[in-house]
# Entry
Amino acid sequence: MDVFFQQLINGLSLGGIYALIALGYTMVYGIIELINFAHGDVYTLGTFFSLAILTLLGVDSVVHGPALIGVLAVTILGAMILCGLTGVIIERLAYRRLRNAPKLAPLITAIGMSFILENLMLYWRGPSPVPFPQVIPNPQFALGAVTIQAKQIIVVLLAVVLMVVLQTFVYNTRLGKAMRATAQDKDAAQLMGIDINTTIALTFLIGSALAGAAGFVSGMYYGSTWFFNGFGAGLKAFTAAVLGGIGNLAGAMLGGFLIGLIEAMTTQFISDQWSNVVVFSVLVLVLIFRPSGLLGESLPNKV
Amino acid sequence: MALLTMEGVTQRFGGLTAVDALDFTIEAGSIVAMIGPNGAGKSTAFNLITGIYTPSAGRIAFAGTDITGWATSRIAALGIARTFQNIRLFGFMSAIDNVLTGEHARLHANLVDSLLHTPRQRAEEGAARERALAMLAFVGLEDAVESYARNLAYGVQRRLEIGRALASEPKLLLLDEPAAGMNPSEKRDLVALIRKIRDRGITVFLIEHDMALVMEISERITVLDHGEKIAEGDPAQVRSDPKVIEAYLGSPA
Amino acid sequence: MRLIAPLTARLPPALRTPRAGTALAFAAALALPFIGRNGAFTNFLADAGAFVLLALGLNIVVGFAGLLDLGYAAFFAIGSYSYAMLASPQFGIHLPFWVLLFVASAIAAIFGILLGAPTLRLRGDYLAIVTLGFGEIVPQTFLNLSQWTGGPNGIGSLDQPVLFGYRFGFNPLPYYLMVLGLIALAAWLANNLRTSRLGRAWMAIREDELAAAHMGINTTSTKLAAFAMGASFSGLAGCALASKLQLVSPDQFMFNVSVFVLAMLVLGGMGNIPGVIVGSLILSALERFILPQTTNFMHNVGLNVDLTNSRFLIYGVILVTMMLFRPEGLIPSRQRKAELHAGQADRRAAAAEGELLTEVIH
# Structure
C-alpha cells in the first residue's frame, strides 16, 4: 500500500507536467481544430531555453533565500516568453496560410514542424541527454513510508496556479471572451469585430508559454532532457487533453493528472517498458467509447 | 400505399426539441412538400429520415421496413436519396463520377473485382457509364460530363445533385430547398424536372420556401412550426388554414 | 510536369499515352542495373524499390482515401517480422519466400483491419493520432517481447529467396528484379483500384464523408478496405527488404520511417501513382547519395558540415514547404491539385468579399 501512495505522489507530479502541456493542445485544438504536433517539441524547447537562461545567470547549483525566487522568476518567465514567441512564429509561418485548406494539409505541416524543431534542437544540444542543474533546495518530507520531495509540491502547485490564472483569463477578460467566441464560430466572431488572426496568435502565445513553464518544471524534476523528449511527452499530453475532453481547460488538467497516475502505476505494477503501450491504449479506448472525453459535451453533427 | 411513415418521431438536442411527436405519411407516387418558418424542424425531419440522427423517440418505416436507427448508408441503399440545402457535391470529381458514385449501391463489384478489373467488373462499369451518361442527359448536363462539379454554375450544380441522387434508383427522393437561389426561368425548369421524376415512378418529398412553387407542384403539404405539425392537406386547404397564416405572419421569420 | 512536357511533346503520339509511358519507364528500370554494372548502385535500387512499394501502399490510404496514417511503419514491421518468424532459425520454421509474400501481406492486412475497425469511425485528425500511437506501440512491443522477437537485436539469419532452384544469395540484382516485379504488380493493382467502384467511394469519402454515406457507401468498411490494402502492400515491402537484409530489428520501424514514407507522397504528389514513385526515388537517393556526397564535397572545400545528420530536418522542411507552396506535389494528379489549392482560392474569395463588406460599411 505504501508503494501505491508513493506512486500516487509521483504520478501527480508527473501529471502536473502533462497537464501544463495538455492545456496548450486543448486551447489550440479548441480554436482551430488542429492537433499541433509541434507542441510537444515547444515543451522540450522550454527546458533548453530554461537551461540557457540559467547558464546566462551563471547558476549551476542550488540557490538559497531571496536569490532563489529571483532566479526562478527570471527563468520561468523567460522560458514562457521565448516559447510563447516560438508558438506565435510557428502559427504565423506554418499554419495560418492553411487555415482553409483540407484538413490533411495543416496536420502534415504540423508533423513537419515537429521534425524541424526536434532536429534544430539536435543541432543545438546534440543527441545525448543534457543535464539540468539542481537549482532548488529539495528537502524531503516523510509521511509514514511515503516520501514527498519539495520539487514535487512545486510542480503540482505551479500547474494548479497557472491553470487558475488561465481559467480566470479566459472567462473574465475581453481577450478571453474573444478566444471563446472564435472557438465557437469564427465567422460570427469576425462579424462582431473580433480580430481572428490576433486571437489565434494569442492562443498560440498562451498555450506555448504554458509549455515553456512545463519545460522548466520538467528539467527541474527529471534533472535532464534531450531533443526527442517532446515526442513521447507530447503524445501523452495530447492523450490527456482527449481524456479530459478536448477544448475543455479543466478537462486538460484532470486528464493530465490521470495520465500521470496511469503512467506511474503502470511503471510500478507492470513495467516501465509497457507504460507507453498502456497510455496509448487508453487514448484509443477513450476515443472509441467516449470521444467527447470526461468533461466534454457531445455535439450534434452539423449538416 | 404508404411509402414512408413517421410515428411520434421526436428529436431533442439537449434541452431543445427540434421535432416534436411528428406523425406523417407519404403516399407512393406523389409529390409532397413540407413547409414552415426557419427553424421549424424541416431539415431535422430530413436528417431523421436519412439516418443522420436517430430519433429520441418514435418510429420511421419505409416501404414496410422499420428503418429507425439504421445507418445512413443502409437507408440510402434501401431506396431513399436526397439533395442538400447547401449543395454537397463531390466538388473535385467530374460530373459523371458524381453520378457514378450515386450508382454505388446498385453496383456489385467487390474488392477482388476492383483490384483485378475482372471481366464482370468491366462489363458492369461499362453499363454503369452508359446509365450515368443517360442520367446526365436527363438532368440536362450532357455538355458537362467531364467538368469538375465545383466549376459548374449554381443552378447546374443543383441539377447535378438531383441526377446523382436519382442514379441510386431511389423510391423516395428528398429535395432540401431545391429552388433556393434560382431565377424564375430555372425554377420553371425545376418544376418540369420534378414532374418528370415523379413520372418515372419516384415519390418526391421536398422542403421549400418558395410558396408559389410549392403550391404549384405539391399534392399534399405538411406545415411545421416549432417542431410540431400544425396543418396538413392539399394546397388550397393549407393556404386557407388560419394556423398556417398565423405561423407565417405572426412571427417575424 | 512542366519540365517534362517539352520533352514528351517531341515524341510520336503513340508514345505519349499513359500506357506507353508506363512501358517505357518499366523498360528503363529493367535496363538500369545492367547499364550501371555497379553492385552498390543495384543494391541501392533494390532497397529504394522496397520503399517505393511502401509509398504505393500509403498512397492508397492517404492519397486515395484521404486518411492520415502516421503509423504506417507499424504494418511494415508486422510484415517484416512475419517473414522473420516464419523463415529463420528463430523458431526453426522455414516456409518458402513466395508463400510468405502472401502470408505476410495477409497478416499485415489483418492488423490493418484490427486497428481500423474500432478507429476508422473517428474524425480524421483523431485517426492520425491513434495511428501515431499504434506506430509507437508496435515496435515497442516487438522490443519488449524479446523471448520471441530477439528484443533490440531483432531476428537474424533470415532465409534468402529461391526461385526454381536459383538462390538469390547476396547478389542485389535478383532482389532488385523481384522488387521491380512487385512494384509493377502494386502499381497495376493500385491503378485498378483508383478507377473502380471502390476507388470512387474512397474519393467520395475524402471529399465529403456525409454525402458519401448518402450514396449508400458504407464509410467504415470502405475506409477499412483502404487500410487493409495499404497494409498489405507494406507486407510485400517487409518481406522483400527483410529477405534481402536477412535481419529485422525494432529500430527499422520507428516513427521516422512513417514520416519518411509520408514525405515521399507529399513530395511526389499524393494520389498520383507516378508522382509517388518519383517522390520515393528522390528521397531514397537523397538519403543514400546526395547527402553523403554533398557532405564529402563540403569537407573537401573545407566546410565541416555533416548533412547526413540533417535528413530528418530535410523531411520536416519538405513536409512544411510543400504543403505551404506546392501541396499537390512535384507530379500532381489533376484532381488533387485543384483540391489542395481550393483553400487558397476560398481565402482569396473571402478576402475579396471582406473588402466589399468594408466598402459597403464605409
The longest strand of chain B covers residues 2-13. Chain B has two domains: 1-79+170-253, 94-168. The CA atoms of residues 85 and 176 of chain B lie 5 Å apart.
